[in-house]
Design a protein that fits this description.
The chain is an alpha+beta fold. It is built from two helices and 16 strands. A hairpin with a 6-residue loop joins strand 6 and strand 7.
Amino acid sequence: MILIRKILLIPLLQVALGESLQEVFGYLGENITLPSGADPSWNLSKVQWSIFSNNTLIATYHNEKANIDRIDQYQGRLSLNTSSGDLAIHNLNAKDAMVYNVDVINTEKKSTKNKIELTVKQHLQKPTIETHTWVPRESPKSGCLVKVQCSSLDEGVQFSWYIEPLSVTTLNTSLPDGKSALLLAFLNNTEHTVKVTCNTSRNIDTASSVVTSKCEDEKTTNQRWSETRNRYCAVIVIGAFMGNVLLISIIHVFGEQKKTLHEKSQLDIKASRNPSDQTIKIDD
């Protein structure tokens, strides 16, 4: 009796082991291949990919014919490998995240069933970098201090830095908000330029942004300020000049109109005082 029970349990165990759940990760807008789990040595005769609890078919292969346009959600976005049974989904979107079922049968009537859980993620966005440079007025040639702040719109990321040249003295820390990090770089008179790369990471996904900062002396800083100030002054002078020209033009136009109205008024008054001037003479 015990032997009979063991014999009956063997097929059930094979089915349970065959329907293992495999996790696969993909990213929005990219492509992902869902593995069928079939033995590479098999010659497949039938493949069925389905979703939902009612096993809605989305891609099939039978009688040497493949059908990958079964439902609108995946229209034009599926590719079925009839040799391996693997299913590729192109241009992933958030709705594609679900559990997929696959049934595979070979020409020798051997079969396997698997479940693949697809998770769709979004790539990390590039971090934003802001820099500020301080040059001491007392000794501008002694170097400067560069403050670099790196921020990310993504949650739960880790920050790291890469500095070039490596000899630059730096101090870095994460800010309390958890979404940004701060780096201080001390540049001397020989290391007047620094290239800073801010990296963000979460699991296996990474993103980075690069900025280059120059240690400028006080003379260069004052020169730039002077150039900026001169540009603003030029804009103000030109604006004032154009405003005056516009005002003079408006006054001139109104003056001409007023003069014309005055002349017309004088003619009307003269005509009313000498009505005989308007008498039409008829020759005898």
